[in-house]
Amino acid sequence: MDLYRSRSDRWLAGVCGGIADNMQVQSWLVRLGFFTLFLFTGSFAVMLYVLAVILIAKRPVDGRQHYSEAKADSCAGYSGKQQSNLKETLFSYGPSPSGRVAEISKRMQSIDAKLRRMESYVTSRKFQFDREIKRS
Length: 136
Hints:
Blueprint: H1 15-23, H2 27-41, H3 43-55, H4 67-76, H5 80-90, H6 97-122, H7 125-135
Helix pairs in contact: 1-2, 2-3
């Protein structure tokens, strides 16, 4: 998905709405993040926003429905299923610790296999032969 300034979800220039569309989150979360950045950095956040207005193009006008508009449509018929999806979206912390351990274990086994292959090549006669050929 490309990053554009929003035409519909905007307060000033549509930067926060466009970032929210691109990240597929609620625009108020992006605005809250920007406001927090403004509280801690002051003028840096304002300069960053102005730079974003200059560098990020406005969304082209077309018939596609964007994330913020889809969210607005879905809120009209709000149900418990949507609430659980929102909860899963907001509180998803990624894979469980045991899943992470399994992934790390798989990566370590892959690295170990590569190191074993490299070690067997470096200690082989073929490596010594190739090294002698390159010297001459």
